[in-house]
Amino acid sequence: MVRVSVKSYLSQSFIRSAASFARQCWKTEREHSSQRYEDDLLTEHQALAIGAISASVSFLEATINELFFDAADPLANSPLIKQLDDNTRRLMACLWGWENYQRTTKVLEKFQHVLRLAGKSPFDKGKSPYQEAADLIEVRNALIHYKPEWIAAYTKGLDQELVHDLERRLRGKFALNPFVPEGQVFFPDRCLCHGCSEWAIKSSINFVGSFLAEMKMSSSLNEIQEKLTTK
Question: Which of 73, 82, 167, 219 is the most exposed place for a label (fewest CB within 10 A)?
Answer without folding.
Answer: 82
